[in-house]
Hints:
The complex is a heterodimer. Helix content of chain A is about 40%, strand content about 25%. Chain A has 9 helices and 10 strands. In chain A, the strands form 2 sheets. In chain A, strands 6-7-8-3-9-10 form a 6-stranded mixed beta sheet, sandwiched between helices. Chain A has a 4-stranded antiparallel beta sheet with strand order 2-1-4-5, with helices on one face. In chain A, helix 3 packs across helix 4 (about 115-130). Chain A is globular. By secondary structure, chain B is mainly α. Chain B has one domain. Helix content of chain B is about 75%, strand content about 5%. Chain B has 15 helices and 4 strands. In chain B, the strands form 2 sheets. Chain B has a two-stranded antiparallel ribbon. Chain B is globular. The two termini of chain B are about 20 Å apart. Classes of the chains: A alpha/beta, B mainly alpha. The interface of A and B includes residues 78, 82, 103 and 156 of A.
Amino acid sequence: MAAILEVEQVGKRFGGFVALDGIDLAVQEGERLGLIGPNGSGKSTLVNCICGTLTNEAGSVRFQGRRLDGLPAYKRTRLGLARSFQLPRPFTSLTVSENVRIPLLYTVNAREHRLTSAGIDDRCAELIGLVGLQDKAEARPVDLTQVDMRKLELARAMAADPKLLIADEAMAGLSHSEIEDILKLLLRLNERGVTIIMIEHIMSAVMSFSQRLVVLVSGRKIADGAPQEVVRNPEVVGAYLGQ
Amino acid sequence: MRWTNFFLIAAVVAALGVAATQFSSNDYYFFAAYVVLQYVVLATAWNILGGYAGYVNFGSAAFFAAGAYSTVVVHKLYPLPLPLLIVFSGIVAGLIGFGTGYLTLRLRGVFFAIATLALAVVLQTLIINWDFVGGSRGAYIIRPHTFPLLGSYMKYMFLVMLGLAIVAVSVARLIERSWLGYGLAAIRDDEFAAEASGVPTLRLKLVATAVSGAFMGMAGSPFPYIIGYVEPSSTFNLAYAVNAIAMPMIGGTSTWIGPVIGAILLGTIQQVATVTISSAVNLLIVGLVLVAFVIIAPNGLVGLAQSWMRKRK
């Protein structure tokens, strides 16, 4: 297996606050990686640096062997690096199916052969069906429930046809059965060959999903390995429960 | 509405315009219609950036004036036919739009609005100090009195503006229904999410500012021929900036028809008020109508109609 994503010595500061301090991370193709850490540990900042929403001052990010530094976010998405947002950020004036249409128009169509308008309609319907929103395709995001909003967020990220998907707290605030829904969905995507990084606070979900677990604390990586071993690591336990 | 229906209606409107020039000989009506059509172009142009992409431009008067002064410059050097002047003004204003867009589009929300306002002030200062176009004294432009076949030149200008309005509305409609329109809507709703969905936000916004600026310039291009005397304070008039915003807001900013309805409605009211009450009352009317709409129908007449239709279902 080759590494699809290589993060080398990435550092990010906000004024005097060190948000990320020399992070190293390699993700293998097809892997399911869990990324955990207490609030404010730099998980979302790391995602933002990987996706180009923020620029890292130090280090570099490679995707499929290609250096991403300085590349704007939209170009990274076109390369196959998609993310869902921690708080769902739907396009509120567009319908559910139009929300999914945007990445189809701007990534899939920008990549190889253009899809016909019927092709786009089909792909839209397929993606909406994949997340189970087919009955709400013409609804506006304001009329969706929290769990549907998360599903839309994932469908939109998937529409870009990514090779790597970063799901930033896709399950926060959901009920037990809703978490199961999203977990099943992510596993199905992974079976299709999509590498997934899951950022989550809900430990049962992370533990059942991840093949490997990485822990960030105060902008530093303190553990990286098999989930069962990582959660027994004294440093990790200390970070969550206090020493 | 399909494109064929759209063009059918556009053709009927154009034919009615031509017919009107044959039946009426009162130049005033054509002047009034010209002003209303000029606002249709201005409001449609504003809406491409303000309505579709959500970037509020307070500097419409600057683009309008850029078009008008382009005409003055060309007229002084080598008078061209009106349609060519309009194209030239469109190119100049489009380039100004592109340039300001490049400098200001990294700003969002209210900061962008302030930057466009600053652009208007800068451009006006430049014009005031540019002697070739008359500086603050202004410049006299003598337009031809007649036009072959139509008789009066005013009728000709009315027809040209009618054509320009049809082109502007068609372009706005084309943008709205294309991948560009979807991209701009995504930018309006959430710029971060748009970028994460692969939308090249800066590039799209630059296209929108350039197209929007170009049509505003084209709307202002025949202005010197209309009044025969151009000076900075009337060309950079607040009325253009205010109307360009108010008309789409009253009509509805999410579709191409909104600015058209708003401009025809408000433009006609203003023309009637000018002859019956006084021209000074115009901005007051705009202000009152705008306040009323913000309270009663924040999504404009189109939004009001849409929600009414949804309720009926």
